[in-house]
Design a protein that fits this description.
Order of helices and strands: EHEHEHEHEHE
Strand content: 15-25%
CATH architecture: 3-Layer(aba) Sandwich
Radius of gyration: 13 Å
Largest sheet: 6 strands, parallel
Number of strands: 6
CATH topology: Rossmann fold
Number of domains: 1
Length: 133
C-alpha cells in the first residue's frame, strides 16, 4: 500500500467533529492536514501554502463550499476539491461539478471514499467528477 507522504490536505468544515474526523482519517493516510472552520480561513491558508487536495463542507455560515470552490478555481484550475454535504441534492451536485469539484460526497459516505482515493493517491488533477451517495 502506497502512502502519499508529504502530501498536503486542507479540510474546511464548520462542524468541529466532522473536521476532526476527516483530519484524523487523512492523517492516518500520511497527509499533512490543515483544518479550518470557514471559507474565509481557507482562503487565508491558500495565501500561506500549497495543497494537494481540499475537502469542504457544502453549507457553512458565511462562505459556502461552492463559493470556496469558485475561489479555489481562481487560484488553481486543477486542484482536486471534494465537496461534502449532509444532504446533497441534484442542484448542489450540478453546481459543484460546474465549478470543477472532483466529487460530491454525502457526509456518511465521505470516509469510505477518502480511504480508497487517499491511499491510492487518486486525487488526480482534472479527473472526472464523482457523486458519492
Amino acid at each position: 500500500m502506497e502512502i502519499p507522504g508529504g502530501r498536503r490536505a486542507l479540510i474546511v468544515d464548520d462542524d468541529t467533529m466532522v473536521r476532526t474526523m476527516l483530519a484524523d482519517a487523512l492523517g492516518v493516510f500520511g497527509y499533512i492536514v490543515d483544518a479550518v472552520d470557514s471559507g474565509q480561513k481557507a482562503i487565508a491558508c491558500f495565501a500561506a501554502g500549497r495543497y494537494d487536495v481540499v475537502l469542504t463542507d457544502l453549507l457553512m455560515p458565511g462562505m459556502s463550499g461552492i463559493a470556496l470552490l469558485s475561489a479555489v478555481r481562481e487560484r488553481d484550475l486543477d486542484l482536486p476539491v471534494l465537496v461534502i454535504s449532509g444532504a446533497p441534492d441534484v442542484e448542489s451536485a450540478a453546481e459543484a461539478v460546474r465549478y470543477g469539484a472532483a466529487g460530491l460526497a454525502h457526509g456518511r459516505c465521505a470516509l469510505p471514499s477518502l480511504e480508497g482515493r487517499a491511499v491510492s493517491t487518486q486525487w488526480g488533477r482534472r479527473e472526472k467528477p464523482q457523486i458519492i451517495a
